[in-house]
Design a protein that fits this description.
By secondary structure, this protein is α/β, with parallel strands linked by helices. The chain is built from 16 helices and 17 strands. It is about 40% helix and about 15% strand. The chain is globular and about 65 Å long.
Length: about 475
C-alpha cells in the first residue's frame, strides 16, 4: 500500500536514514498543482495524461477531504494563473458530485466549450466523405501546431485568474518543467513567501539510461532533480519501485547532504480510466475487423510509444520466431509515432515483411478504439526494461484481459499474480510464453482477472492528497 518515509542526511554526509515522522496537527490551506507544460502544449504523452487526470479529479477529491485543490500554470509576466480543467481533445471537468463510475469514469466536456461540438461535426463529415483516415494522418503530423491553437482557444473560453502561492499553500510540481525552466522563477518566489514545495517523481530513467536520450536531455533532467532535492520539502513517486529508486540514488550520490531538514517521500498509485467516455464510441472498420469473438484467435496487443526502453524490438523478434515456426499469432501495436522523423523501432514495424498481414500498427486511436482493443485482445504484451509505472497493465487487467510482462520490479508491483512474466530483453522467453499461453498452460499461474482491483482517478487523487497532508506538518518554510 502507498506509504511515506522521511530521509535525513547526517552531518557526516553518510547515506540517508529513515526516521519516524513527527506528529503535528496541521493541514494545508490549498494544494496548487502546476500543470504549465500540459496547459501550453498537450502532446498526449503518458505524463501529460496523468497531469490531466490529477488536475481534473483533485478538486473533487479535495472537497471530500476538506482541502482546496487547484491547477495552476505559470506565466512569465503574470505569475501563476488558475487552471480549472485540462483535457486532451476537449477541456474537461469531472462530474459535479465528484464520483467516478466504475474504473473508467468519464471526464465530461465543460459546458459551453465549442471544441467537443466542432470535433463531433467535423468527424461526422469526414467519415461520410471517406476522408476520416487521411485527416487522422494529417492531424498526427500537425499535432504540435494544433496543440498551440487549442491552447489559444482555451485561454478565450477559460478565464485565468492570478494565484499567489504563499504560507499555508502547497505548490506541487505535478508536470514536467524541464521544457519550461522559467517556472522555477515562480517556484522560488512562492517558496520565499512560505509555500511548501512538493514534486511528483515519475521515474529516474534519464539518469540511469542516459544513452537513450542523447547528450542534452539527461543533463536537463539531472538539473531538474537537483533543484527538486534542493528546494522541495517532499517528493511523491508514482510507484513504490520509483520511491525505492529515488532513495537509492540519493544515498549513492549523497544528494541531500546539504539539507538542514529531512526530505519526506513516499508513493501513491496512479488511477485507471481513459480520458474520455469510451463505451459506444466509433471504431474504424480496419481496426474492428482484426478482432473476432474468440479472444485467443485475436491479435496480441502492445500499447506504448516507440521509446527504446519500451523494447518493442524484443516483441517483434519474439513474433518473428513464432511466425517462422508457422504460428498464426497476430500483433497490433498502438502508440504515438514521430511524424517526419520515425524512430528506428517505428521503421522496424512499418517496414516489416508481415506489416499489414500479421503485424499492424496504429498511431492515432481514439479512447473508444483503445478500449475496444484492450477488451478484445488475446493479451497485452509489455516488454519494457525501464518503467515508472506502466498504465497499460492496469488498463488491460481492469478490462479482464491477461498481461504478459517483462520481469521488472514495477511490473510485479502493479500486476502481481495477474500477469505472466518473462526475462527482460529475451525474445526466446517471450516467444515461449506466448506459445504456453496460447496452449492454455498459464491458466493456473495467472490470478483470477475478475479479482483485480485498482484505484480510479478519484481514488488516486485522494491517495495523493493523503500523502501531501501527511507531509505538510513536517515541512520547513522560507527556504530561500
Amino acid at each position: 500500500m502507498p506509504g511515506a518515509t522521511f530521509l535525513r542526511a547526517s552531518q557526516q554526509g553518510s547515506a540517508p536514514a529513515i526516521n519516524p515522522p513527527r506528529t503535528k496537527p496541521s493541514r494545508p490551506r490549498r494544494i496548487l498543482m502546476d500543470c504549465t507544460h500540459t496547459f501550453r502544449h498537450d502532446c498526449g504523452t503518458g505524463v501529460q495524461r496523468v497531469v490531466r487526470n490529477l488536475v481534473n479529479w483533485s478538486a473533487s477529491a479535495g472537497r471530500q477531504m476538506q482541502v482546496e485543490c487547484q491547477g495552476v500554470a505559470y506565466d512569465a509576466t503574470r505569475g501563476f494563473q488558475a487552471v480549472d480543467a485540462l483535457g486532451a481533445a476537449s477541456h474537461a471537468t469531472p462530474p459535479a458530485n465528484g464520483t467516478q463510475a466504475g474504473t473508467a469514469g468519464p471526464v465530461r466536456p465543460a459546458s459551453g466549450s465549442p471544441i467537443p461540438m466542432l470535433k463531433g461535426a467535423v468527424k461526422r463529415t469526414l467519415s461520410a466523405t471517406g476522408l476520416l483516415d487521411p485527416a487522422r494522418r494529417v492531424n498526427r503530423a500537425m499535432r504540435p501546431t494544433l496543440a498551440s491553437v487549442q491552447h489559444a482557444v482555451a485561454r478565450q473560453w477559460y478565464s485565468l485568474s492570478g494565484v499567489r502561492p504563499g504560507a499555508g499553500d502547497v505548490l506541487l510540481l505535478t508536470d514536467t518543467i524541464w521544457n519550461t525552466p522559467e517556472v522555477w522563477d515562480g517556484i522560488r518566489l512562492a517558496v520565499s513567501r512560505g509555500a511548501v514545495l512538493g514534486a511528483v517523481v515519475y521515474d529516474l530513467i534519464p539518469l540511469h539510461f542516459a544513452e537513450l536520450y542523447g547528450p542534452y536531455f539527461p543533463k536537463v533532467f539531472e538539473e531538474w532533480f537537483d533543484n527538486v532535492t534542493e528546494l522541495a520539502d517532499f517528493v511523491v513517486c508514482i510507484s513504490q519501485s520509483v520511491w525505492e529508486d529515488v532513495q537509492g540514488y540519493l544515498a549513492m550520490h549523497d544528494a541531500i547532504a546539504h539539507r538542514r531538514a529531512p526530505l519526506a517521500g513516499g508513493w501513491f498509485r496512479l488511477g485507471e480510466g481513459l480520458d474520455t467516455r469510451a463505451a459506444g464510441g466509433d471504431v474504424r472498420p480496419e481496426l474492428a475487423r482484426l478482432f473476432g469473438k474468440n479472444h485467443l484467435d485475436n491479435p496480441y496487443l502492445v500499447v506504448g510509444s516507440f521509446d527504446p526502453r519500451k523494447d518493442q524490438a524484443t516483441v517483434i523478434e519474439a513474433f518473428d520466431r513464432l511466425w517462422a515456426g508457422g504460428s498464426p499469432a497476430r500483433l497490433v501495436t498502438i502508440g504515438r509515432g514521430c511524424p517526419g522523423q520515425p524512430t528506428p523501432l517505428e521503421q522496424l514495424v512499418m517496414r516489416h515483411s508481415q506489416h499489414g498481414g500479421k503485424l499492424f500498427c496504429f498511431h492515432d486511436v481514439e479512447d473508444a478504439e483503445l478500449d475496444f482493443c484492450y477488451r478484445n485482445s488475446a493479451a497485452l504484451i509489455t516488454a519494457s526494461y525501464a518503467e515508472g509505472f506502466n498504465l497499460p497493465i492496469v488498463e488491460s487487467l481492469s478490462r479482464g484481459r491477461p498481461v504478459l510482462a517483462s520481469d521488472i520490479p514495477v511490473h510485479r508491483e502493479v500486476a502481481g499474480a495477474h500477469a505472466a512474466y518473462f526475462r527482460p530483453r529475451a525474445a526466446d522467453a517471450l516467444a515461449d510464453l506466448v506459445l504456453r499461453y496460447h496452449r492454455g498452460e498459464l491458466r493456473q499461474s495467472l490470478g483470477r482477472l475478475d479479482s483485480f482491483r485498482w484505484p480510479n482517478w478519484l481514488e488516486s487523487s485522494r491517495e495523493l492528497i493523503e500523502r501531501i497532508v501527511e507531509f505538510y506538518p513536517h515541512a520547513r518554510v522560507a527556504k530561500v
